[in-house]
Structures are given as structure tokens and as C-alpha cells.
């Protein structure tokens, strides 16, 4: 039987409401020793807020707050749970927590509430991982996809594949039980059809990962150009505030600076770089080297030129660096000044004429980037976003491919079976059916305390 855990479930800054949370059999009675509504809290009606006084370890009243009991099994964790909705003073919440710990609760570890929900079958592992993704979501689309997975979207995509493979396994076991019969007698075509379906379903899911990754982690993007082109001005314009220093001195930015920037529905992890030029001193040389490194690591390069000046060799060097990224586009900046560069001089499929100073032309960027990186997805949880899940599904898919090849080459049924079982184990790691404890530990470590 599990013990009673307690934690502050809300943030560490003063705010309107702060929540203390407990889970474990008997937690209502335990809470009743420090939280006193009119009726004893242990007898409070299920899932109904009651008003009462919260006492610290010394018995002093430190808050007037609301408490609620959710009795097992109808709670988030599946156990008896209690929440105290207090005024949001971090100091008072800490004193309240201490009081609960003194009454016999234990400080909850990171993700321990959700771990209990997982262990009690309230959530599978895809849903538990969606909880962290939801908390970490940096865009509404990322939240929508995580909410879909919390609702079981990924689980529903994977379970039928797992069930299909379970059926296959029982066929193969039948084959193994009658070693004198030929595998053909067990419907080889049917077996390979089932493998094909499982493989195709996994491929479909794996193919969503690129967009899913962009949704969850954002797109690594870099601004490249010669000094004074207006890279830092563009970063500030996209960020919506003066994040980096802008001056008319060439070589203002000396090191790379990263800033998350939302462009429409796309989250860019945008890196501003030192202008690319023949370096004057050692620090500048390092800065330029870093700019070129950032370009190599980026998924999107934004080449910026000062379109009020003719192109130079420095521009051409920056163009070359930008072309190293999988996607690139050119921003012809300073459109508020008379133009000395025409867009078709630039060797990019996409050239936008913009002004960091006025913001002109930048409104074309959201639709463009959404098309490239998110596409027309519904954000309903159907996108695979998590590298761990991708890795395990990829292993499952490879194992199925091996089984298919084995079957077509006529290898022994037990060899094919080994591959199918490996695929099932990998799928089980995603849903949590067959996951090892060290893996679940690592997953729940990513959670915050109180979740
Ligand atoms: N105050 C508060 N807000 C919260 C949570 C919470 O635990 N407390 N949540 C969590 O961190 C999330 C909501 N998730 C929850 C999911 C299930 C249940 C629950 O009580 N489930 C029961 C009853 C279901 C029902 O009434 O339909 C069950 O599954 O049996 C509660 C919260 C977000 N907001
Ligand atoms: N007229 C005009 N000036 C701009 C525009 N964008 C930037 N500038 C000016 O150009 C100068 C250089 O801008 P920065 O943003 O510092 O240029 P940078 O590319 O970051 O330069 P380095 O950090 O030196 O590589 C500043 O004086 C800006 O005010 C623009 O759209 N129009
Ligand atoms: Mg700069």
C-alpha cells in the first residue's frame, strides 16, 4: 500500500491561488489535523469544496482556504486525494506543506502523482508523457497536440498495432507447436499481410515526427549576413522587444544569441549571429566561426542583406553559409531606403523584401513558415513529438521489416517470431505495457514536483 505524499502544486511566485496537494489512503483524515472546516474534513462530501482554516506546525491559523477530497478510485491518481486551495503566498504554502509533513505526509518527488496515476491504470505512458508536454507547451498548437495525446490519441494509434502483432504471435506459436507442418499451411500470405499492416501503421506514425518535433521543440533557425545588414534588428522585431543590441557600428554582435520567437504558429529558436566578414581581431574571428557553425546546425537559415547597398563578397559568403541549412530564405532588409539590390540577384527560391525598422514585409513570414514546418495538421494528438517515443517506434518498425524479410526468405518461424516479439516489446515501452522501471524513472524525473 502506498504512503501519503504531499506537495505544493503551483508556482513559486506570489499569485492569486496556490494549491497544496496530497495523495494516498487516509490523506483526508491526515489533512483534517491541520485543516479545519466546520465539519471534520475526513467526513467532507466527495469532490465538494469546503471552506476551513489552515494551521501551521505551531497550530497558528495561516490561511482561510478551500479543501476538497476525491475518494478512490475517482481521482487523478486513482487513490484518495486532497487539494487545499489557498491564497498564493509561497511562504504560507511552504508552512502549510511543512504542517502536512509533520502530520505524517511525505514530500512527493517529481511527477509522483502522475506516476501513481500510471501505476493505478488511470493513464498509460503516452498519456503520462503528454502531461509534461502539456505543461511545457510553448504554443497553443503544441498544447492542443499534447491534450490530444492526454486524451489517448497516441495510445489509440499504437494499441491496434500491438494487438495485431499479438494475433500474429499466436499464429507463429501454432507453427512452432507443429514443427512437421510447413509454414505455408498456416497461411504465409495472411501472416505477411498482417506484418505489412503493422509496418505501414508504424511508418505513418513515424512520418509525423518531423512536424511533431517542430511543434514541441520549435525550429532551429539562424540569421546570417554581413555586419550591419540588420540581423539583430530583425531578431528584435520578431521577438517583439529589444532583446539584442543594435547600433550602426559594423560588428556590434560578437557572439551568437538565441531567443525563442513565435512567428504565427511556428516557434523559432532563432539565433542571431556575428556578421560574417574578414575578421579584424581574434574575438571577431571566433564570432564569425560560430556564425558559420550555427548555420550548419540550423534547420532554417535566414540570409539578411542590406538592400540599400550593392551586394559584396561578405554577402556572398553569408549566402554560401545559409545555403548549408536544409531550408533557407533571403530577407532583403531596409526596404524603407532606396533599393540597390533586386530580389532576383539573390540565389534563393524565397526572397522577402522587408524592413526591420518599419516591420514592412514581415507579415508574409508566418504563412510561409507554417507551410514549411507544420503543414495542415489538426494538432489533435496525432503527431509524434517525443524523441523517446520516436526511437522506440522506429525500433519496432525495423523489427517488423526484419520479420517481413525473414518471412519472404523462408527463415524458420522462430526467427520471425523473435523479430515480432522485439517489435511488441518496443511498442510496450511507448505505452508502458512492458517498460522497464529505469525508463519510467527517467520519464517521471522530467516532471515538476506536485504534478
Ligand atoms: N485542481 C486541479 N486542477 C487540475 C488537476 C488536478 O489534479 N487538480 N489536474 C491534474 O493534475 C488536471 C486535470 N486532470 C484530472 C484528471 C482526472 C481527475 C479525476 O478526478 N478523475 C476521476 C474522475 C473522473 C470524472 O469525474 O469524470 C477518475 O478518473 O476516476 C482529476 C483531474 C488539470 N487541472
Ligand atoms: N533604415 C533602416 N535601417 C535599419 C533597418 N534594419 C536595421 N537598420 C539599421 O542598421 C544598423 C545595423 O543594424 P543591426 O541590427 O545592428 O545589424 P546587424 O546585422 O545585427 O549587425 P552586426 O551585429 O554588426 O553584424 C542599425 O543602425 C540599424 O538601426 C531597416 O530596416 N531600415
Ligand atoms: Mg547584430
TrEMBL record:
Q: Which metal ions or organic cofactors does this protein require, according to UniProt?
A: K(+)
Ranges for domain TrmE-type G come to 218-374
Give the residues the record marks as binding GTP.
228-233, 247-253, 272-275, 355-357
Instruction: Write the Enzyme Commission number(s) for this entry.
Output: 3.6.-.-
Binding-site positions, K(+)? 228, 247, 249, 252
Q: Which UniProt keywords apply?
A: Cytoplasm, GTP-binding, Hydrolase, Magnesium, Metal-binding, Nucleotide-binding, Potassium, tRNA processing
Binding residues for (6S)-5-formyl-5,6,7,8-tetrahydrofolate: 21, 83, 122, 451
User: Binding positions for Mg(2+)?
Assistant: 232, 253
Which coarse location class describes where this protein primarily resides? cytoplasm
Q: Give the top-level enzyme category.
A: hydrolase
> What Gene3D superfamilies does the database record attribute to this sequence?
P-loop containing nucleotide triphosphate hydrolases, Probable tRNA modification gtpase trme, domain 1, tRNA modification GTPase MnmE domain 2
Oligomeric form and interacting partners: Homodimer. Heterotetramer of two MnmE and two MnmG subunits.
Record family assignment: Belongs to the TRAFAC class TrmE-Era-EngA-EngB-Septin-like GTPase superfamily. TrmE GTPase family.
Q: What does this protein do?
A: Exhibits a very high intrinsic GTPase hydrolysis rate. Involved in the addition of a carboxymethylaminomethyl (cmnm) group at the wobble position (U34) of certain tRNAs, forming tRNA-cmnm(5)s(2)U34.
Protein name from the UniProt record: tRNA modification GTPase MnmE
Amino acid at each position: 500500500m502506498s504512503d501519503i505524499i504531499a506537495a505544493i502544486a503551483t508556482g513559486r511566485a506570489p499569485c492569486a491561488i496556490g494549491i497544496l496537494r496530497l495523495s494516498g489512503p487516509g490523506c483526508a483524515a491526515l489533512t483534517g489535523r491541520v485543516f479545519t472546516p466546520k465539519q471534520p474534513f475526513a467526513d467532507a462530501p466527495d469532490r465538494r469544496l469546503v471552506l476551513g482554516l489552515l494551521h501551521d506546525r505551531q497550530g497558528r491559523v495561516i490561511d482561510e482556504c478551500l479543501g476538497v477530497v476525491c475518494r478512490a478510485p475517482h481521482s487523478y491518481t486513482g487513490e484518495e486525494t486532497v487539494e487545499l486551495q489557498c491564497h498564493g503566498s509561497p511562504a504560507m504554502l511552504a508552512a502549510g506543506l511543512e504542517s502536512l509533513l509533520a502530520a505524517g505526509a511525505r514530500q512527493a518527488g517529481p511527477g509522483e502523482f502522475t506516476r501513481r496515476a500510471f501505476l493505478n491504470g488511470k493513464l498509460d505512458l503516452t498519456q503520462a508523457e503528454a502531461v509534461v508536454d502539456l505543461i511545457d507547451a510553448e504554443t497553443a498548437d503544441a498544447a492542443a497536440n499534447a491534450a490530444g495525446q492526454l486524451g489517448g490519441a497516441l495510445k489509440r494509434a499504437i494499441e491496434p498495432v500491438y494487438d495485431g502483432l499479438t494475433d500474429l504471435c499466436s499464429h507463429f506459436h501454432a507453427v512452432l507447436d507443429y514443427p512437421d507442418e510447413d509454414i505455408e499451411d498456416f497461411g504465409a500470405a495472411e501472416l505477411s499481410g498482417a506484418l505489412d499492416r503493422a509496418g505501414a501503421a508504424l511508418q505513418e506514425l513515424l512520418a509525423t515526427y518531423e512536424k511533431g518535433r517542430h511543434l514541441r521543440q520549435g525550429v532551429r533557425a539562424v540569421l546570417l549576413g554581413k555586419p550591419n545588414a540588420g540581423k539583430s534588428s530583425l531578431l528584435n522585431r520578431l521577438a517583439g522587444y529589444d532583446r539584442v543590441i543594435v547600433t550602426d557600428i559594423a560588428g556590434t554582435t560578437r557572439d551568437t544569441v538565441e531567443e525563442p520567437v513565435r512567428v504565427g504558429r511556428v516557434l523559432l529558436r532563432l539565433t542571431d549571429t556575428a556578421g560574417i566578414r574578414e575578421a579584424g581581431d581574434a574575438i571577431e574571428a571566433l564570432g564569425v566561426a560560430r556564425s558559420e557553425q550555427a548555420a550548419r546546425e540550423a534547420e532554417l537559415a535566414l540570409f539578411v542583406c542590406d538592400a540599400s547597398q550593392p551586394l559584396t563578397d561578405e554577402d556572398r559568403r553569408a549566402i554560401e553559409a545559409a545555403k548549408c541549412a536544409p531550408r533557407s530564405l533571403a530577407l532583403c532588409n531596409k526596404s524603407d531606403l532606396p533599393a540597390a539590390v533586386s530580389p532576383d540577384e539573390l540565389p534563393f527560391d524565397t526572397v522577402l523584401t522587408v524592413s526591420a525598422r518599419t516591420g514592412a514585409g514581415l507579415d508574409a513570414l508566418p504563412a510561409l513558415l507554417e507551410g514549411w514546418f507544420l503543414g495542415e495538421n489538426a494538432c489533435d494528438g496525432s503527431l509524434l513529438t517525443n524523441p523517446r517515443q520516436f526511437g522506440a517506434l522506429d525500433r519496432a518498425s525495423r523489427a517488423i521489416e526484419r520479420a517481413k524479410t525473414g518471412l519472404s526468405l523462408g527463415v524458420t518461424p522462430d526467427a520471425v517470431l523473435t523479430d515480432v516479439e522485439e517489435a511488441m516489446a518496443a511498442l510496450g515501452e511507448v505505452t508502458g505495457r512492458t517498460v522497464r522501471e529505469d525508463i519510467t524513472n527517467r520519464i517521471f524525473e522530467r516532471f515538476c514536483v506536485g504534478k
